[in-house]
């Protein structure tokens, strides 16, 4: 029997819709709301308004792109949490309305579960148990996965998420929001030029937070403060704006900014790899990394080296599938649908939805 699922993602600043036919994505229209760039972060109210105008074109677009008719749908899925309440509400209301009008099931999806299984959509069935590391703008989580719905939290961040750290320190360096990709590009540039050619530069080193051995977590706020103090100390005569202490922007020569960006990336990757090493156990059959910050080429190289050392496969979806998108929602919804797991229309959005059963 042909199974057709529509997946909708509106948890933050990406409006995504995707169609999946028999486990294969046939169309994905995901757009990033660029309007937040000038505010230096996602403005919740503006995000939900933008979702309202973008959602119908995204959904109509995937039907157009794939040649599928709306009455061929078997289920409609949408992210119900975690995320921004107003933003989630747009996707969930749209999905419920469509499901009800077609008299087909609605499936509410936990956004993190979408990230968790995005690798499977790209690489095929994943042997369990595996460790998944989700690193995004809102989350940094290490999870033991034993199967669909069988998740054990190993550890998470005690403060900032990895993407949040990139966005905040990137802003101090003068990058527009979101800053992760720019920091990453600088860091790659550093490896290709300054490091590869052994240029004689004063290296920058930021401290790494140490987490107690049995806690298996991460902490990035100390790094953020270290970057702030470093910039204040070195460039305090060139402060441009002072909207809040983490938004100061300085006149930093390109060459020096590249060195600082690389030092931030090095510190983050060291902390992530140290956390993974601490949690690693020979039972694990692979490492899955996902979430927007997993698009970083620098981090991808370090994770691949970790996997080589442990002689295990590593699964990191393409950057388009690492950042928020409709396809990952359609995929995990498909897994639930074929297991007869659908949601009641009474399911409400939950901005702090958890992946773990208490
Ligand atoms: O998963 P995602 O799209 O949204 C959330 O669920 O939060 O992740 C967004 C985060 C942002 O913080 C952004 O700076 C970061 O992912 N990001 C990157 C790259 N592309 C996006 N970080 C590092 N390197 C990249 N290439
Ligand atoms: Zn996400």
What keywords describe this structure?
binds 5'-O-[(R)-(carboxyoxy)(hydroxy)phosphoryl]adenosine, 10 helices, 43% helix, Nucleotidyltransferase, domain 5, 5-stranded mixed beta sheet, 358 residues, single chain, 2 domains, alpha/beta, binds zinc ion
Structure description:
The chain is of the alpha/beta class and 358 residues long. The chain folds into two domains: 4-118 and 325-337, ATPase, nucleotide binding domain (Nucleotidyltransferase, domain 5); 130-320, ATPase, nucleotide binding domain (Nucleotidyltransferase, domain 5). Helix content is 43%, strand content 17%. The protein is built from ten helices and ten strands. It has a five-stranded mixed sheet with strand order 3-2-1-4-5, sandwiched between helices. The protein has a five-stranded mixed sheet with strand order 8-7-6-9-10. Zinc ion (ZN) binds at residues 111, 115, 136, 291, 324.
